[in-house]
Design a protein that fits this description.
It contains 10 helices and 15 strands. The protein is an alpha/beta fold. A hairpin with a 2-residue loop joins strand 2 and strand 3. The radius of gyration is 20 Å and the shape is globular.
Amino acid sequence: DISDFRTVCYYLRWDQRQDKISIFSPQDVDTSLCTHLIYAFVKLENITLGIYEENDEKIFEELIKLKETNRDLKVMLSIGGWNEINTDLSMMLSNHVSRKHFINQSVEYLRKWNLDGLDFHFYHPINECKQKLTYLIQGLRDAFTSESRTTGKPSMELSIAVPGNTEDIKNGFELDQLHKNLNFVSIIVYDYDGWSQNVTRHNSPLFSNNNSSSLSWSTSYVELSGVEPSKIVVGVPLYGRCFILEDSNNTKVGALVAGPCPSGEYSHIPGVVSYAEICLTYINNPETKFYWSDEHQASYLVYKNLWISYENERSLVRKVDYLYQKNYGGCMAWNLQFDDFNGNFCNTGLRFPLLKVLSGERDIKYVHLSHLFCF
């Protein structure tokens, strides 16, 4: 049922420190496009849920106010985003007493701010803690259910995001047990290899001859692990991966690269370029060449010696159709700030063009025909 299809939108706290074209505030969120709005990230310190900066809680309040325009919107907090195992996480998971403290404090904290749930976001597996994570999720679900019965309020939601690499999933998560106590499981089906291969690669291919690095392979594995299709939410990057070509005449997938591109003005991460920046710098540039891969059902562009794998309307329509066909539970957008949130970056006047495709809106008059086809 398409009406049950989730569009999970991440709002990054890091954007508080951006400037110039990149400024993004809660008021910029289009609540009609998201079923879930997740604030990333909050802090885990001394086995307690908390914040990084005082301004975080002010933003919680502003995000909650957005429910006035969409009363069905779920506003949640996300904890995690660690690039390696976190000592505070290990400490919190280590025993029943510390887990119980975290569970009780989390329920109290979430209700204090009128939030709708908690999300755990893992870029890497937590091999040595995976059984204890299962215990934690069970404890949180029990606590959410008990609190709901006591207060009469709707039970809070609980979700996790896991890496797309199937070995990481196998080694780090007991999905056959976890999913029973989760509202949904998001799969991070992007950034499979980073720069480790030293060649151009699609950031988030739908299909691939190397099956282990594609959306279709990762989602099938999660489904075979026992997760109900209706609980599977598929991550979509609203940004591209940018490489510097060693030979600008070799523009194929698998071409040798000298490394990642320099940090962008908006994304501030080497090799990462937001869709907004792609529009602003490359889409309408006559020197840019656009390509489509039938094998991967994915787009990329080449500008001089730069090679960028990115999502556009065409690739996202393919992905959303695939999710509908598989009866999956929705998609996850990482992240709102990287889309053309004000309609000025792509010079179309249309806000959130990529998110609109993910949420089911496909107004063809706004599609950039120049980058839907190979030149």
